[in-house]
Specification:
By secondary structure, the protein is mostly beta strands. Helix content is 11%, strand content 30%. It is built from one helix and five strands; from the N terminus they run E-E-E-E-E-H. The strands form two sheets. The protein has a three-stranded antiparallel beta sheet, with no helix packed on it. A two-stranded antiparallel sheet has the order 1-5. It is globular and about 40 Å long. The protein starts with a strand and ends with a helix. 4% of the residues are buried.
Length: 74
């Protein structure tokens, strides 16, 4: 959810990219599992809030795009 500023969110599902812009305070997206995510802003004062359905566990995350592509092709 964008709390302030403007955010660009890009998602890749293993086949195609989708892009969304969050620029209104309170605007947000519900994102399902299994997507590669890229989040960026050019506004140094922008604030983005992320809500999750489970507690953070580092082992649940893939940090390298090539590792993600290998995982998608299993």
């Amino acid at each position: 959810m964008a709390l302030s500023g403007s955010w660009e969110l890009r998602f890749y599902d293993g086949n195609e990219w989708s892009s969304f812009n969050l620029s209104q305070p309170g605007s947000g997206l519900l994102v399902g599992p299994g997507l590669w995510r890229e989040i960026s802003t050019e506004d140094s004062s922008a604030v983005l809030s992320v809500f999750a359905s489970a507690a953070f566990d580092e082992s649940d995350y893939i940090r390298d795009f090539q590792d993600y592509e290998a995982w998608r092709n299993l």
